[in-house]
Design a protein that fits this description.
The protein is mainly β. The chain folds into two domains: 98 residues, Immunoglobulin-like (Sandwich); 83 residues, Sandwich (Immunoglobulin-like).
């Protein structure tokens, strides 16, 4: 079986600007003393970048999800739903088929290679995503069906909205932020140190060249 996944062209130059704004949240995590931050991702021309994966790794935080953590990637109307899923390392992902036709789901990505051969309903066993990185999915029957699962070593993640924004509860300290967009294809998320001050706004720029 050959892979039919479409790989988006690599951008020659991409500039991410993450603007962190907000003060301490009224609701903080007791032990982590976290604050609610708004992170905005923009390109080099200042335009917001929706559908960008943002993940923040905090020192001392377990990279793996708690045992039994699960997520779902469905198939409806001959499409994956959602087409972009973010999970923490160690998450079990199920692939229920709600269509009246059978699907053949596969991934040839290095972090997780698997096949769910022609099936209807829900496979008995979910797939364990136990390595961080990018898994591109396809259906060997329906070429237009593609999706991505981004696996991150942190429970602090989100996908930016139409304004290029996410909200995350972050404690003060020196952390690491990772970013991924479809233009990166199978490449690992971009990585950059992130310093969060107690209640103080900050600015982080991350530039990528080919």
């Amino acid at each position: 079986m050959r892979s039919r996944l479409h790989r988006a062209p690599f951008q020659a130059r991409l500039l991410f600007v993450i603007a962190l704004a907000s003060g301490l949240s009224a609701a903080v995590v007791d032990r982590a003393h976290a604050a609610s931050w708004t992170l905005q991702v923009r390109d080099g021309s200042g335009q917001p970048l929706p559908d960008t994966v943002v993940a923040v790794e905090v020192k001392g935080q377990s990279p793996r999800a708690a045992a039994g953590t699960s997520a779902q990637m469905s198939q409806r109307d001959r499409q994956f739903q959602p087409q972009l899923l973010v999970v923490q390392t160690g998450t079990l992902v199920s692939f229920p088929n709600f269509d009246t036709v059978r699907h053949h789901v596969y991934s040839f990505s290095p972090i997780k290679r698997f096949e769910l051969k022609l099936y209807a309903g829900t496979p008995a066993e979910p797939v364990l995503f136990d390595q961080p990185g990018v898994a591109q999915l396809g259906c060997n029957i329906h070429d237009r069906m593609t999706a991505g699962i981004i696996v991150v070593d942190t429970p602090l993640f989100a996908i930016t909205d139409a304004q290029g924004q996410v909200k995350l509860d972050l404690p003060a300290g020196d952390h690491r932020v990772r970013l991924w967009r479809a233009a990166l294809g199978n490449a690992a998320p971009l990585s950059q140190p992130l310093k969060v001050s107690a209640g103080a706004p900050g600015l982080l720029k991350l530039e990528m060249r080919d």
